[in-house]
Design a protein that fits this description.
The complex is a heterodimer of chains A (about 325) and B (about 450). Chain A is an alpha/beta fold. Chain A folds into two domains: about 120 residues, Rossmann fold; about 200 residues, Rossmann fold (3-Layer(aba) Sandwich). Chain A contains 14 helices and eight strands. Chain A has a four-stranded parallel β-sheet, with helices on both faces. Chain A has a four-stranded parallel β-sheet with strand order 6-5-7-8, sandwiched between helices. The longest helix of chain A is centred in the middle third of the chain and has 22 residues. In chain B, about 50% of the residues lie in helices and about 10% in strands. In chain B, β3, α5 and β4 form a beta-alpha-beta unit. Classes of the chains: A alpha/beta (about 325), B alpha/beta (about 450). Chains A and B meet through α4, α5, α12 and α13 of A and β5, α9, β6, α10 and α17 of B.
């Protein structure tokens, strides 16, 4: 960046609070990378997660005023951040999200990382928010997030996924009533890693094959929406409230131990009535690959291990595999 | 009189063992390697060994570790299963009385040593860990079939800035009913310009806040170890433990300096790999590991003094990055006209001296933070550049670990930095646990590297 003030912070991890960035006066843009951007990264194909490659490629296309924030939530991602930092003049920040949780030290580390991110933004020309400003921004996000949550129940799975993506991009809740019809068919849960741009079509593929998506448990879905804030604590100590809502509340696959994800999946799969699970994971993603067998054990449901490469033809292969999976279930 | 330096077959080493048995007394664990073959360690038949009593002792020490662990367990010692951090937790554990620590991670070599007859990969596969995972998945099988190491009384695993394979496999171990104490290893970053920093063993620096954080995490480990041992682990005990660990590290430093810089290569690559591995958890007997290394160092000193080596003096000097899953590939280096001139087996923090002029927990925290896996690949590459330069390496070989989450990008970064900084050839190979079908390819790659080095010498 050539001395231009930071205007936009792009990131993909659900553990980076949009409120924190917005309170610093920059635009938070949590986005889904384009699979085609992976080629731009020039990172090795073999052994590297396509999502991490795509994210690195996207970071290389940043313009003046834009900065990228990666999170250490997996080995591939922290290395992708390093790769991107080597290849792009744009500032790259690597947010250390602790894997352990439930200890004061882990929560403190996450809080310290928030402050470090804040200092990083301030050095790039952002403002240093007062407590009241942060609380106001959080309250505003909380209200809009409530609207988003309310809307999710009446949207089709694809619409819901796209509504979350739109909210993540610019903080706006859905403005239109649902126009698609809610699906009927074999109830299927989709769980796993993040979606790339356009990947929400996987929900269509499932419906076309006779399924009905009853749970979006991907990283891009409702699973990673932070819990509502506590109004009183938000005013007393907004940063602590951010820590609780994001670090303390979002269940994910990289956390050790992973009991929160186990509990979330157990609860949500049961309440969704899913009869089968599609596990969405990228090739070379060890963390989700390790969950294939565990999901079968925990959910006692048929599991389709959908290893996604993000390359040309991936959509067709995905559709075929979903078709075959659901044919067996129907 | 010592035999001349050369590599010999297992039968040759067993003959040497028989001759030694008739002479000077040897530690009880030293014996012919064929006894391990009888137990299934078939890879030993395919390896070549340094022809020395010191190497015999080294191999016997290594191959009897499981017996040692079971004996310690039966005798009432508390067994600590340290996982992933490669070098920190054992220093703490061995500072306590009647506590033995080892790395279940070490099971990653079992499929190689037993040429897949152990079935560990099959068990791992049945639990969802197939070939897309690093060979350390064998550890999972060992926890299930209990045919190798005793189940530890406590498992202590670092999480955070670690490889995803290991993290996922360890989580699976826990899901099978083996509780784990997880402690956080943050991603080591470079200090901001205005941020208080500390120097780490090995020459890097880190923010003081990160060292303080790791120290607080290690305090949790200390409390758990005290609870296990029923004895206090005070700073005095830790300082004594660090001093003993440093004895091992100093021996290895001398050994590495001589072995990697001598004009005539005094010790084969395979034995150097095994020797370096002792630093991690002392092969479950800290005192004996010191004697084993002292023996090896004496042998190397003698050879250096006599200017004799195990390969031709013009062998290409190769710096080796990452441990190999198939031990036989270390033999291949010398078969291809190369020799070791430095290593970075992913645990350089277990080789660097631990500061003895700091409070022990601070020293251990800094050591843990120096883990090459915890920091940027560029840091690791810089260390490789520095060491390769110091050892006079003429080429760098990066041995990728199949399926490992860090290898793809890390190898690319290392290759790039090494080429820029040293302008020497770099080659990447990938070594599966039993590499026999790939041996011709690997040999071609190594020979091409050696030829490149030889060509460059002519310029």
């Amino acid at each position: 960046m050539t001395g231009t003030r930071v205007t936009t912070v792009v990131y993909s991890s659900p553990f980076v609070p949009a409120e924190w960035i917005a309170a610093h006066g920059a635009r938070p843009k949590r986005f889904r990378p384009d699979a085609a951007a992976a080629a731009r990264s020039a990172a090795p194909v073999a052994g590297m997660c396509p999502y991490a490659r795509a994210l690195a490629g996207e970071a290389m296309a940043l313009r003046d005023g834009q900065v990228a924030v990666f999170a250490t939530t997996c080995d591939q991602m922290r290395r992708a951040a390093e790769w991107a930092a080597l290849e792009t003049p744009a500032p790259v920040f690597l947010f250390n999200v602790p894997a352990t949780h439930g200890t004061p030290a882990a929560a403190r580390l996450y809080r310290d990382e928030l402050h470090r991110l804040g200092h990083f933004l301030v050095r790039l020309g952002a403002g240093d928010p007062a407590r009241k400003k942060l609380a106001d921004v959080m309250e505003s996000y909380d209200a809009r997030r409530r609207e988003l949550r309310d809307a999710l129940g009446i949207l089709t799975p694809r619409e819901a996924s796209e509504a979350i993506a739109a909210f993540d991009r610019d903080g706006s809740p859905p403005t239109q009533a649902a126009h698609g019809s809610l699906p009927h068919g074999v109830p299927v849960a989709v769980v796993g890693g993040p979606l790339m741009r356009g990947d929400a079509r996987v929900f269509d593929r499932i419906e076309e094959a006779g399924g009905a998506v009853v749970l979006d448990g991907t990283e891009s879905g409702a699973r990673t929406i932070p819990a509502p804030f506590d109004r009183r604590r938000l005013r007393d100590d907004p940063v602590l409230e951010l820590v609780d809502a994001y670090f303390g509340g979002i269940p994910d696959v990289f956390r050790r131990p992973d009991e929160a994800l186990v509990a979330w999946l157990g609860r949500e799969l049961a309440s969704s009535g899913a009869r089968a699970v599609v596990l969405w994971r990228y090739v070379w993603c060890d963390l989700w690959a390790a969950w294939v067998a565990r999901l079968k054990e925990l959910a006692r449901l048929p599991v389709l291990d959908l290893d996604v490469s993000g390359d040309e033809g991936a959509d067709r292969r995905t559709a075929n595999r979903i078709q075959a999976f659901l044919e067996v279930l129907r | 009189m010592n035999p001349p330096p050369k590599r010999i077959s297992m039968e040759g080493l067993d003959l040497l063992c028989a001759r030694r048995s008739a002479g000077a007394p040897m530690p009880a664990y030293v014996g012919p390697l064929r006894r391990h073959v009888a137990e299934g360690d078939r890879r030993l038949l395919r390896l070549e060994y340094d022809a020395s009593p010191a190497a015999l002792r080294l191999w016997s020490f290594l191959l009897t570790e499981e017996e040692r662990l079971h004996a310690a367990h039966a005798a009432g010692a508390k067994i600590v299963g340290a996982m992933k951090d490669l070098g920190t937790v054992p220093v703490m554990a061995y500072a306590l009385p009647n506590v033995v620590a080892f790395y279940p991670d070490g099971a990653w070599w079992t499929p190689c040593v037993m040429e897949l007859s152990d079935g560990l990969f099959c068990i791992a596969q049945s639990l969802g860990f197939g070939e897309s995972f690093c060979p350390v998945r064998a550890m999972l099988g060992a926890f299930v079939n209990r045919a190798h190491f005793p189940i530890p009384d406590i498992l202590i695993c670092s999480a955070g800035a670690v490889c995803d394979d290991f993290s996922a496999i360890a989580q699976r171990v826990e899901s099978l009913g083996h509780p784990i104490l997880w402690w956080e290893m943050p991603h080591r970053r470079r200090p901001e310009p205005d941020e208080p920093a500390v120097e780490l063993p090995g020459g890097f620096s880190a923010p003081a806040s990160q060292a303080a954080f790791v120290r607080s995490e290690l305090e949790r480990v200390r409390a758990a170890l005290e609870g296990l041992a029923g004895a206090p682990l005070g700073d005095a005990e830790l300082a004594a433990g660090i001093a003993e660990a440093n004895r091992v590290r100093r021996l290895l430093a001398d050994l590495r300096r001589l072995a990697y810089t001598a004009e005539a290569c005094p010790m084969p690559a395979l034995e150097m790999l095994i020797a370096e591995m002792l630093a991690i958890h002392f092969c479950s007997d800290r005192a004996e590991s010191i004697r084993v290394l002292a023996d090896l160092l004496e042998e190397v000193r003698r050879r250096v003094k006599e200017k004799v080596g195990i390969v031709a003096k013009d062998a290409a000097r190769v710096f080796w990055v990452n441990p190999v899953a198939d031990l036989r590939v270390m033999n291949l280096l010398e078969d291809s006209g190369g020799r070791l001139a430095g290593t970075e087996f992913l645990f350089s923090h277990a080789l660097d001296p631990i500061p003895e002029d700091l409070p022990p927990m601070e020293a251990l925290a800094r050591m843990a933070l120096a883990d090459p896996m915890a920091g940027p690949s560029a840091d690791r590459a810089a260390r490789i550049v520095r060491d390769a330069r110091a050892f006079g390496a003429e080429a760098v070989l990066v041995s990728r670990i199949p399926g490992a989450s860090h290898c793809a990008l890390e190898g690319a970064v290392i290759a790039r930095v090494v080429r820029e900084e040293l302008a020497i050839p770099v080659v990447e190979i990938e070594v599966p646990p039993v590499a026999d079908p790939m041996m011709p390819t690997l040999r071609s790659q190594l020979e091409a590297l050696v030829e490149t080095v030889q060509e460059r010498r002519k310029r």
